[in-house]
Amino acid sequence: MKNIPHTPKYSLRTLLFMALAMGTVLVTTGTLAQAKPAAPVAAPAAAPAAAKPGTPAAAPTAETAPLGAEGNKEAAAFAETGDINIFHSKDPALWILIALFFIALAVGVERLWVLLNSKSANADLVRLVTEKLSQNPATGEELAKEVSTPKYGVEGRIAAVTLKGWQHDEDTIQSYANAATVAERRYLSSRLPILSTLGNNAPFIGLLGTVLGIMKAFRDLAGAADAGPQVVMKGISEALVATAMGLGVAIPCVMLFNYFTSAIKRKMSNSEEVTNIIVALRRATRSGR
């Protein structure tokens, strides 16, 4: 059983490199997409004409009135409009979620690559095993080498290990099959707990970031004198981005985890079908039928 052929596992260093590479590309792309050309420098305003004697002076407008109080300066800064760029955010929860997203993406791509390389022709495998063992029961060891080729994937590898116990009784053959199934399931399920953990906990990380962001927005509102609702609105909108990011990380993780789990169950079911046929044929051969 130690000679089961399979696709080499990716090391943790490889996964981290993949996540870092994809993160660098996406961050660079997002930064370039969000970059805006600098606004042209406005020409200096013309000096106002001297007022005629007896004419009352015009009141300063809101646009040109300087911000006297420090609180008004803070209000103007917080009420500044513009697009929210997550790559310029200072929220630590948001950056944690971005890092977790890249890790989940690397794990998903690696597991998808493993499953794509484990595709098998299960119908052909069942037909081959049935025909070979029915015609010549003594070909069990030779058949094990034939079904272990990449064409038959995971099911073929489990069948190959099962056939190594062909010369023994049915219980021994079933033990071979169970051991091979456990080994292959462990290999296919590797790193899936990462997706499950992120799918369950990423929304809570986003919610934590939102709560902290709202607390900061209200604290800034309290410290800004003569500030209106617009001061806190932008802070709350930026804080809600963390919740959206948490859901954006969790939903793909749950979808990938369910897809991989379903694919693994399907492969294990196909393998059980093949091993049951092998055990049944061995039982029939020993009984002389």
Key attributes of the depicted protein:
9 helices; single chain; mainly alpha; 289 residues
Q: pLDDT below 50 for ≥5 consecutive residues: which ranges?
A: 1-9, 31-48, 59-79
Q: Which term fits the overall shape?
A: rod-shaped
Series of H and E elements: HHHHHHHHH
The biggest beta sheet, please? none
**Individual helix count:** 9
Helix content: 55-70%
Number of strands: 0
Beta percentage is: under 5%
| Rg, alpha carbons | 33 Å
Account of the protein in words:
It is a single chain. It is built from nine helices and no strands. The radius of gyration is 33 Å and the shape is rod-shaped. It has 289 residues and is mainly alpha-helical. It has helices spanning 12-34, 70-78, 92-116, 122-135, 140-147, 153-163, 170-188, 192-223, 230-286.
Question: Topology of this protein?
Answer:
Blueprint: H1 12-34, H2 70-78, H3 92-116, H4 122-135, H5 140-147, H6 153-163, H7 170-188, H8 192-223, H9 230-286
Helix pairs in contact: 1-3, 2-9, 3-8, 3-9, 4-9, 5-6, 6-7, 6-9, 7-9, 8-9
Briefly say what this structure is.
This protein is mainly α and 289 residues long. The chain has helices at residues 12-34, 70-78, 92-116, 122-135, 140-147, 153-163, 170-188, 192-223, 230-286. Helix 6 (153-163) packs antiparallel against helix 7 (170-188) and helix 6 packs parallel to helix 9.
